[in-house]
């Protein structure tokens, strides 16, 4: 007997080609408060005022309108044109102003001393291997003006020996959006993981499924500190738990959504 096709299994679409669905999946964040925290981090630790801001792997760039409202010029870099088009449209709609968006790879950044602050969120340093990771930090060093900060959310693996799984569900009007995040070790010598983000969006009985996978070269805490100490263009500033600049990681009982800051010297 021929196996019957499974009508219940929808085809999975690329997540980063579908910015509105990505935005729902990661819509749990208070982006106004996060922008305020990034500004506060700069107020405390940057050696220069912040006018020009760069978000790396910006995606749909939900923070951009808040930077613009604070009087800053915002540039977003991302590899997905679909994300950037959406970000451009949404920023203009929400702030009545334009931000600059550049399509490119974070391991080959095209900027020279153009920014006072750079940031990357949700652990989005998508470097597949050590060389790409080094090129990324060299690119950020070239992009930042002296005294400027590079602030990273996650990006260092504080639980290096376990595969990580998380999931969450949100309801928006008639839409139910479930996200499953997985990080599985690929190669413990090369320190690479396979990251998978699966998003399922159900609207009035119809389900669409989206997926993004990427190989990432992970950094461990002491390795990261050593790398920054030896980097000619950066110094380590600090790391804090859960976006709270008054809670250094050393005091954290468990680590969640850490912020890490380094400064361009
Ligand atoms: C998890 S999303 C983060 C989006 C946004 N920063 C946020 O806070 O919601 C990751 C983003 O990284 C982008 N990306 C993946 N690999 C990249 C690369 N090599 N260079 C630049 N962007 C990349 C994807 O297109 C996607 O928009």
Mean pLDDT: 95
The CATH C-level name of the largest domain is: Alpha Beta
Q: Would you give the CATH topology of the largest domain?
A: Rossmann fold
Q: Give the DSSP E fraction (strand runs of 2 or more residues).
A: 35-45%
Task: Using the alpha-carbon principal axes, give the shape.
Answer: globular
**Element string (H = helix, E = strand):** EHHEHEHEEHEEEEEHEE
- Give the count of helical stretches: 6
Strand order of the largest sheet: 4-3-2-5-6-12-11
- Distance from N terminus to C terminus (CA atoms, Å) equals 70 Å
Which sheet architecture does the biggest sheet show?
Answer: 7 strands, mixed
Label the CATH architecture of the largest domain: 3-Layer(aba) Sandwich
Strand element count:
12
Hetero ligands: S-adenosylmethionine
Percent of residues in helices comes to: 25-40%
Low-confidence stretches: none
Question: Which class best fits the helix and strand makeup?
Answer: alpha/beta
- The CATH superfamily name of the largest domain is Vaccinia Virus protein VP39
* Total separate domains: 2
Round the Cα radius of gyration to an integer and report it.
Answer: 19 Å
Give a description of the structure.
- The chain has 265 residues and is α/β, with parallel strands linked by helices.
- The chain has two domains: 187 residues, Rossmann fold, CATH 3.40.50.150; 58 residues, S-adenosyl-L-methionine-dependent methyltransferases (N-terminal domain of TfIIb).
- Helices cover 25% and strands 35% of the residues.
- The chain has six helices and twelve strands.
- It has a seven-stranded mixed sheet, sandwiched between helices. It has a five-stranded mixed sheet with strand order 1-10-9-8-7, covered by helices on one side.
- Strand 5, helix 5 and strand 6 form a beta-alpha-beta unit.
- It binds S-adenosylmethionine.
- The site of S-adenosylmethionine (SAM) has 15 residues, from loops.
């Amino acid at each position: 007997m021929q196996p019957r096709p499974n009508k219940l299994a929808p085809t999975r679409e690329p997540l980063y080609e579908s910015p509105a669905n990505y935005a729902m999946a990661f819509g749990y964040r208070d982006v106004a408060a996060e922008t305020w925290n990034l500004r506060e981090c700069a107020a405390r630790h940057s050696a220069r005022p912040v006018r020009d801001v760069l978000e790396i792997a910006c995606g749909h760039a939900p923070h951009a309108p808040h930077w613009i409202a604070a009087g800053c010029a915002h540039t977003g870099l991302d590899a997905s044109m679909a994300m950037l088009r959406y970000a451009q449209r949404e920023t203009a709609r929400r702030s009545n102003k334009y931000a600059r968006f550049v399509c490119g790879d974070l391991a080959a950044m095209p900027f020279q001393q153009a920014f006072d602050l750079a940031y990357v969120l949700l652990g989005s340093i998508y470097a597949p291997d050590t060389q790409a990771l080094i090129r990324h930090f060299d690119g950020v060093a070239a992009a930042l003006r002296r005294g400027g900060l590079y602030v990273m959310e996650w990006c260092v693996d504080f639980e290096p020996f376990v595969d990580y799984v998380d999931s969450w569900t949100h309801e928006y009007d008639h839409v139910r959006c479930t996200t499953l995040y997985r990080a599985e070790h690929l190669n413990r010598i090369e320190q690479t993981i396979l990251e998978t983000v699966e998003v399922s969006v159900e609207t009035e009985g119809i389900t669409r499924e989206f997926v993004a996978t990427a190989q990432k070269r992970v950094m461990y805490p002491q390795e990261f500190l050593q790398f920054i100490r030896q980097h000619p263009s950066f110094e380590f500033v600090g790391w804090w738990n859960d976006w709270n600049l008054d809670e250094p990681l050393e005091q954290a009982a468990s680590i969640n959504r850490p912020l890490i800051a380094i400064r361009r010297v």
